[in-house]
Amino acid sequence: MPNTAPKTYNIVLLPGDGVGPEVTAAAKAVLGVIADFYGHRFEFSEHLIGGAGIDATGDPLPPETTAACLAADGVLLGAVGGPKWDGQKRRPEEGLLGIRKAMGLFANLRPLQVSPVLAHRSPLKKEIVEGVDLIVFRELTGGVYFGEKTRTDSMASDLCIYSVEEIERVTRAAFKTALQRRGKVTSVDKANVMETSRLWREVVTRIHAEEFPQVQLEHALVDSMAMHLIRKPREYDVILTENMFGDILSDEISVLGGSIGLLPSASLGEAGPGLFEPIHGSAPDIAGQDLANPVGTILSAAMMLRHSLELEDEATSIEAAVAAVLAAGATTADLGGELGTRAAAEAIIDAIKAIHWAATHRVQMHWG
Ligand SMILES: NC(=O)c1ccc[n+]([C@@H]2O[C@H](COP(=O)([O-])OP(=O)(O)OC[C@H]3O[C@@H](n4cnc5c(N)ncnc54)[C@H](O)[C@@H]3O)[C@@H](O)[C@H]2O)c1
Ligand SMILES: CC(C)[C@H](C(=O)O)[C@@H](O)C(=O)O
Ligand SMILES: [Mg+2]
After folding, report:
1. In chain numbering, where does the site feature Important for catalysis fall (predicted)?
2. Annotated catalytic residue: which of 9, 190, 236, 237?
């Protein structure tokens, strides 16, 4: 039911490359239906990023894209990259790293819930994955991604660098979320080898003791964590880790849910709009064929409604519709179904309509 005064929201779409435009279009269609039902006005504008930016302007992050993102209420991104730009001077991925940095998005949230109806899609045993409910807090604007890079003919280096402040702010965000969940944080590092990880562990331990002693904290080394996530994923609640470990572990856990195409993410800073994107890439092997699973992007749009536009009911109704459609087995090929990208989005739109019809019907009966 509409419960918010009509308002205009400025949403920037960054379709990008490969399957990016397909999954972004699917999410835009879903957002359009939400706007109609709740009486909001979503004003969409599309901007260039990644390979599309290189092709059109020579720049993977044209300045006007950055300006539009900074002025938006929320930003929804598809994906960037692909073999077309291999070996070129500018890389599509520079655009993604650049916009994360420019918007100050230091915390990347990657939630995963494995519903009982999809547990059989995982290559792992149903009893291992059923009921998994975790969220990865990945530090997003530091570490080896952003340290100095050097290159000569015979050598290359990537500096991994973290400041205390960079570790503190993502740590606080993770602990705050743990307080609203099952109250457990697993901090993942490589403190047996890396100095940045020893600093990471010290800072996390101090913030825990000083500010969040009621949360249960454990530390894990990233190599054994990669194993534990496959062996006993239900034990984890909030997983806090640095940039590169978070990138790798989040693709790993997507297998628990049955497909990387399902996982959304929210990238958030201290203030200002967030950037929302599926965790998957541009999937060049299936691009342009109406094969991509749009659910990760549609759930990212729901996260955008919740975190940047503060439209909680609207976010929940998208999530309920996605859950209903997946439960009914209406899926794309990656989950064994027969729907294309567009048909999967249509199924979710139909479910949103059905959920709203039921809600309206109940209210009318109540009034009658
Ligand atoms: N956020 C981003 O923009 C982002 C994220 C990851 C990778 N990338 C880029 O994407 C390009 C391809 O990378 P990759 O192949 O290693 O990873 P990928 O995530 O694009 O694809 C890995 C596998 O998952 C499948 N897959 C991905 N998304 C899917 C979806 N929505 N539905 C069904 N199947 C899906 C692909 O078909 C492929 O088999 C690279 O250039 C990489 O840098 C971009
Ligand atoms: C494309 C790449 C730069 C990006 C990352 O490593 O952050 C991607 O893998 C992701 O997970 O968002
Ligand atoms: Mg990744």
Report:
1. 145, 190
2. 190
ipTM reported for the complex surpasses 0.85:
yes
HEC string of the chain equals CCCCCCCEEEEEEEEECCCHHHHHHHHHHHHHHHHHHHCCEEEEEECCCHHHHHHHHCCCCCHHHHHHHHHCCEEEEEECCCHHHCCCCCCHHHHHHHHHHHCCCCEEEEEEECCCCCHHHCCCCHHHHCCCEEEEEEECCCHHHCCCEEECCCCEEECCCCCHHHHHHHHHHHHHHHHCCCCEEEEEECCCCCHHHHHHHHHHHHHHHHHCCCCEEEEEEHHHHHHHHHHCHHHCCEEEECHHHHHHHHHHHHCCCCCHHHCCCEEECCCCCCEECCCCCCCCCCCCCCCCCCHHHHHHHHHHHHHCCCCHHHHHHHHHHHHHHHHCCCCEHHHCCCECHHHHHHHHHHHHHHHHHHHHHHHHHHHC
For the chain, domains (ranges, CATH) are 1-106+269-368 (3.40.718.10), 109-259 (3.40.718.10)
pLDDT band at 358, cuts 50/70/90?
confident
Tell me the per-residue pLDDT of 192-207, one tens digit each, with 9 for 90 and over: 999 999 999 999 999 9
Q: Which residues surround ligand 3, an ion (CB under 5 A)?
A: 247
Pick the atom of ligand 1 nearest to 297's CA: 31
- Please say if the pLDDT value at position 365 is more than 50: no
Q: Encode pLDDT of 215-234 as tens digits.
A: 999 999 999 999 999 999 99
